[in-house]
Structure formats: C-alpha cells, structure tokens
Amino acid sequence: MEKAMHNDSIRRPNDNLSRKWMMYDWANSGFSTTMMAAVLPIFYLSVAGAHLEGAQASGYWAYTQTIAMLIVAICAPVSGAIADLSQRKMTFLRTFAWAGATASALMMFAGEGDWLYVSALYVIAILGFSGGNTFYDSLLPDIASPEQRDDVSAKGYMFGYIGGGILLAINIVMMEMWEPLGFANKLVATQFVFLSVGIWWFVFSLPLFRAMRDPKQVVKRPLPYYAKYGFTRVFQTVRKVKQYPELLKYMVAFWFFNDGISTIIGMSAIYGAEIGIQTTHLIVALLITQFVGIPFTFLFGKFAHRIGSKRSLYVSLSIYAVIVCVGYFMETALHFYILAFMVGIVQGGSQAVARSIYSQMVPRSRAAEFFGFLSLSSKMSAAVGPAVFGTVSLLTGSTRVAILSILAFFIIGIVLLTFVNIEKGKREAELEDTRG
Q1: Nearest Cα to Cα of residue 269 among 428, 76, 434, 34
Q2: Measuring CA to CA, which residue among 182, 192, 106, 139 is closest to residue 23?
Q3: pTM metric for this prediction
Q4: What total of structural domains would you count in the chain?
Q5: Structure confidence by residue, pLDDT tens digits, 7-45
Q6: In principle, which of 34, 108, 152, 308 could form an S-S bond with 144, CB 3.0–4.6 Å?
C-alpha cells in the first residue's frame, strides 16, 4: 500500500486527531439508525408507498436494499483501490459523505406516493454511507499507531452507537411533539427528521475534514486504472482463498448468517409497521436496541472468552433464530420491545465474535487483502436476504411468511459452521505466515 497524507497534521497519532476521526462515526451513524433502521422504512410503507397494494411496499423496500447493496458491492473494489493507492482519501471521503448527507436531506421533499423518489435517493445515500466508510476506515493507520488501533477502532464504534442513539432520540421527540415544536403535522415533522439526518452527518463530519487534508502533491491516476487494479485484486484473492479450506468454509457460513442479521436490521421496522404496531413503539424499540447494544457488546466479548468463540457464536445465532420464530407470532408493541431487547443483546456481540474468528484464520501477511474480500463478498451476499424477503412478501402477500423465510439463513449458517475447524484454520494461516 502506498503511503498517503504525509502532511504535518497527521505525522504522528494524537488523542485530539483520534477524537475527530471518531466524530465521523458519530456523524454518519445517525443515518444508520434513523434512515436504515427506524424512521425511513416506516415512512416508506405508510407514506411513500401508500398507494401500493398489499405487501408491495415492503417488497419494493426490500428490493431497494438489494439494489443498493449490489451497487455498493460493484463499487467496492474500485473504492478500495482508490483508498489504497491514492493520496486523496479526504477528497473522496468528503465527496461520498456529502452525497449521502445531501440525499438524506432531500428526503424531506418526499410525500405520499413518492416511493420511487425515495428509493432512488436511498440508493444514493447508501452508496455515500458505505463508500465513505471505505475511506474512513483506511484513515485508521494514519491517525493511530498499531498498538492503539484496536482501542481507537472500538471507541469509534462506541461514538457511533451514542451519536446514532442521540439523534434517533431527538427525532422521536420531533415526531411525537410535533405540535408544540411548531410543525404543521406529523408528516412535516418527519420530513424535517430527514433533513436533520443530513445536517447531523454534514456538521459532525467537519472536525475531521478540517483536521486532515490531502497533501498538495498527489498521485493522479485515471479511474480505469483503479477499476482494473481493484477487480484484478479481487480475482487474485478468490484464487488464494482456496488454499485455506477452513477459512473458505467459514466464509460461506458467514455469508448466510450475516445476511440473516442484515435482513433483520433492515426489515424489522417495516415488518412491525405492516402488522399494525404504531410508529412510536417501533422507533422507541429500535432505540432500545441501540443502547442495549452498547454494554452487551462488551459483555458478550467476555462471554466468548469464557466459553469459546465458536460456542458463543452458536448461542447468538440460535437466539437470532428464536427472534425470527417469535417475530412470526408477534402481535403487540410489548412483543416488539422484547424482541428489540433480544436483538440488542446479540447484535454487536455476534458481529464482533464473527469478525474475531475470521481474523484468527487469516494469514497476518494477507490480513488487509482478506478482510477487504470479506467486506466485498458480504455486501454481495447481503443483497440476497432482502431479495428473498421481498419475493416471498410479494408472492404470498404476507410479511409474516417473509420474515419466517429469514430463518433459513440462520439454520444454514449454523449447520455450515459445524464443519469449520477453527484450530486447523489457525494452523493453515500460521503455515502461510511461516512460509512468508
């Protein structure tokens, strides 16, 4: 990887710069809570898709997520190549971040029946969110030394949880107290919620954008160069991963259960709204998930250390399977609160343990390469779950049957996980490092 951004402000890591880096996680997590998980899915069902019949709105929302993930996956190799080779990380980060923030803010002009307008803006916003994160993540080596990176990265996640939770709480107040706050009605308040996401993302990105700048002299290459380099690297990694059988088996299992988790995150609000749970209850429940996830992510790490990573992953995936089954029979807001609490218990912990297991079976000498490939492949697979949900929803006219179909992803993932020998995978990785 070529070194980037050798300006004086980032020659050595410091706490002030690290905090400004973390603030970007605070900034864009408002999008993930309000737009991806809570408010926008419900708005899509009840307002933007109000003229659609039956389960069409939930089906179209699922397909919107599928399209967004596919576009992100296609762009990922090029973005990764730019992040690795260019000296313009901040330029591209600003471009993606502002595109996402602008698309979020423009949602305020959406009204009844504007489902296609919302879908198009959401795809742009997702590209800004995911594409920006590629460059944001690549800044970590520039702002923290190797021994600091785990701590700085974890704190970044924590900032994201808190920032996203605070904005969601503010948005709840805006929608529920719309009259005292001076909004004409709840719809107008919701439209201003979308504007607040864009403003939040933009404003809290500024500390990082002001602190870190690209060098004056940069290496400029045409876009086709990055595209060729990025996709060539992907094909090379596909060939190399076959040399690590246990890692390959784990990746296939990961694709399935991670797709199940991603689908639950993306479809839970719209599912709850369609079965009749009020918007306020849905959003408060998702806020519960956000804040429950903060302590339980750390507690789950200790639990995994006590019983072993693989066993703890079995536990978390089994809980997800229970969540899906109970979700099928869900009737009241209390049921949704309980399920939201259960998701909060396992959501962060399961993802952290899954990433930890993967890191144990990856050769250290190829860690960046294989993690990049996992990111790309998981984005591709993450398009399948919403597509299955949408298809089942449209064919059966029932989101209950659609949510139950997600159970298959967890069952297949658990079964495939039983064939993975983590210790053997570690030895395969160590052998590669020894050869290197």
Answers
A1: 34
A2: 139
A3: 0.79
A4: 2
A5: 443 344 467 888 898 899 999 999 999 999 889 999 999
A6: 152
